[in-house]
Input
Amino acid sequence: MDNNSKYFVENEDLDLKKLEELNAKAHLFTEITPSKVKHYTDATGYTTNGFGETRYFNIELKNRNQVLLQDGRISGCSQTGKEYVDETIFIEDHKIADMLLDTINGLEPLYINFLANGWTIIFNLSKLSTRPKKYINMKINSKGYKALEFGNRQGLYIKDAAIFDSNHNLIKKAGEDLI
Output
């Protein structure tokens, strides 16, 4: 296995471990499994409620070098090394499109972001209240591909996300304001 493949496998393993740690405390899913086909999502999961109703999820995981500020915005470092603050988290266009198409097969699309301060931000892409209006073409120095990667991204608004603190306690439901 070359270094590029090893980089991706190690990151996917770390993301799955973080998801399992979150689930152990927050009890979001009855079961989580790594995706069999890793072309745009990292895991699948399901949950069954007390009435025997089952919901199935397609899950994209993202580890971010960003933190959530007290005012509900995200802070991090831009490609130029300058700090930025924004009310959105970006997702690749093709991932959001592919995951939304999976709703045809009964899979709810979840975009789970693990922040540098241990907090977790979860979007259910089929239940966004605000259509993403921020759209950018980003140039990213990919450690996995060891090259510059160009891609289109859309900004998902933090207000549409559920937020868990570093102890995996639910701080905010999707659509609520951050207190």
Observations:
- The chain has a mean pLDDT of 87.
- Residues 3-172 form one domain.
- The CA atoms of residues 132 and 156 lie 6 Å apart.
- The chain has two helices and 13 strands.
